[in-house]
Design a protein that fits this description.
alpha+beta; Heat Shock Protein 90; Rossmann fold; 4 domains; nine-stranded mixed β-sheet; five-stranded mixed β-sheet; 21 helices
Amino acid sequence: MSTEMEMDLELENEMTRAENKPYDESQIQVLEGLEAVRKRPGMYIGSTGPRGLHHLVYEIVDNSIDEALAGFCTHIEVDILPGDIISVRDNGRGIPVGIHEKMGIPTVTVVLTVLHAGGKFGGSGYKVSGGLHGVGSSVVNALSEWLEVEISREGKIFSQRFERGNAVSELTVIGTSESDGTLIRFKADPLIFTDTTEYEYEVLEKRLREQAFLNAGLKITLTDRRDGDNVVEKVFCYEGGISSFVEFMNKTRGYQPLHEAVVHMSIAKGDSIAEVAFQYNDSYNENIISFANNIHTVDGGTHENAFKNAITRILNDYARRHGMLKEADANLKGDDVREGLAAVISVKLKDAQFEGQTKAKLGNTAMGTLVTQLLNEKLAPYLEENPAVAKGILEKSINAARVREAAQKARELARKKTGLSSTRMPDKLADCIWSDAERTELYIVEGDSAGGSAIQGRDRNFQAILPLWGKMLNVEKARLDKVYGNEKLIPVVIALGCGIGDDFDISKLRYGKVIIMADADVDGSHIRTLLLTFFFRYMRPLVEEGHVYIAQPPLFKVSKGKQVRYAFSDAERDTYIAELGGNADIQRYKGLGEMDPEQLWETTMDPAFRTMLRVELSDAAAADETFTILMGDKVEPRRDFIERNAQYVSNLDI
C-alpha cells in the first residue's frame, strides 16, 4: 500500500472515531506556551512559505526600530550568515535582564518564550511601536531551530540559547561592554519552513530600505555573507525621510516630476504624529503608500482615506478660487487629482488599532482627523505660495477629468458596438457547457491555429477557448479612453463578463480559472505580459483572488519507438533521453500550433497531468513598480531591471 493510501485510510479511520465520540470537555485542547505557534504558525506569520520566512526577520528588526522610535537606537545591522542564519544587532538599550516580578525568571527569557509579553502594553516602555501584539520575538523563537541572544547592558554582556522555543541554557554573563544593545541570531526551523529556509537578499533589501526611509537618519546595514568570496553589503540612511522615499519611487519608475521639490508636511498632537510627502509626475498612475508605526497599511485606513479626501477637496477649492474651474464645471473627482501622484503617508501613534492580525488597515478615527487638519493647515497655504506648482498639478488633474469623460463616452460606444453590456459572446469564443464558475475555465490562446487545436482537444463541458491573434494594446502606455473599444481587449472583457475598471464586479465572473496559454518564445512571453498588465491595471481583483493562471506547454517531445516523453525544460529533456537509452528523436515545439489536439490535451489541458502557474499578488506596490518598469515608456529603468535580474533567468532554448 502506498504512503498516500495509508494516510487516506488513517484519516478515514480517525474521522470515523471522531464521529462516534461525543463532543465534550475531553476534546478541548489547551496548547501550552509556544506550542500553539508551532502548531499553527500561519496564524502568526501568515504562511510557512518564503513570505513567512522573511517575516521572521521583519519581526526582530521591528523590535530594533521600536528602540529607534523611542530615541535609543541609531544603527541596526542585519547579516545573512552561511547556512541562512540571520543576525540582527542594534545599539539600543538592550532587552532587560533582571528577574521578572511575576514570572520569576529573567525578563529576556520571558520576552522570548511567552506570547504577549513585551514593553508595549503598559505604556511606559514605548510611546509608539509597530509590534503591538507583543508576539514578535517569541514567535521567531518558537519557529527557529535555534536562537541565541546577546544583550549588552549595565556594562556586561548576557547570553542565552533557545531551541525550538525552549531555553536550553541559563542567562549567563559572558563578558563586558562599554555600549548597550541587543544581538539576536537565529536559524529558521526546516521542520516548519519545509519549502525553503533560504533568504532572498532583494526581498530583505526592499523592506529595510523602506524602514530607513520611514525613520529619517536611522542607519540600517544589510550584509550577505553566505558566499565568503563575494560579500554583498548595502547601507540605508536617508536624512530626507519620506521625502527621499517619494523621490526614490519616481526615480525607480523612470517618471519625470511635474514640480522639482517634494511637498513635505507634518503635524504633532500629543503622542501622535502625521507626516505626508508627495510629488506629481508625468505618468497616468496613482502610487500612494501609507504606514502606521512603520507598518505598511496595504489596505489603507483612516489616515489614507483622510489624505485622499482632503487633497481632492483642497485642489477643487483652489481651482474654483482661481478660475481654473468655472461655475458650470463639475468638481474634479479623486481619481482625477490623483493621476500621476506619488505619495507617502506615515503616522505614528500610541494604541494603534489595526483591522485584522495582518495589520493591513488602520482604524483609529483620530488619525484621520489629524491628517485632515494637517492638509487644511499646510497644503492650502502651500498652493497659494507656489502658484506654478498648483497650476501644473491642476492642469494635469483637469486634463485627467477630460480623459475620464472621454473614456466614459468610449465605454458607452463600446457597449453599443461590441455588446459589452449584453449577453452576446465574442464570435471567436468556443464556450463550455457548464455555467458554474467554480468548475469552469477559460483558455486565452495565442493564435487561431493553436486555438483550433485547443477547441478540438478540450473537454467542452468545462473548458472554454478564446483565441487571440497578434499583440494587444500595452495599457501601461495608454490612457483609459484608448482601452475601451480596443479590438483585442474587448473580447476578453465580454467573455469574462465582469466588466472593467470602475465597473468591474468579480461576482459576475463566468469562469473560475482564466488561463493564459501562449507559445514558449519571446513573442509568447510578450503576449503573457501584456495580458497580465491589463488584468493588473483594469481587473486587479481577478489577480488578487487567484483566478489567473499561466499554462505550461512542453518544450520538447522525446520519443524512441513507441515510448514518448514530454519535457518542460532542457534538464528534463536530457533526463528522458538517458532513460530511453540515448539516440532518441527530439522535437522542439516552437509554438502551440505544432501540437495536435490530442497532444495539447495530454500535456497542457488535462487537469490530471497538466502543470499551471497561478499568478499571485503578495505585494501590490512591488507589482505596480515592476509593471511600470517593464511596460512603461522609460528605457533606463527597464535596462537596469533586466541587468539586475538576468542572473535569475534560466538558459532557455528559444
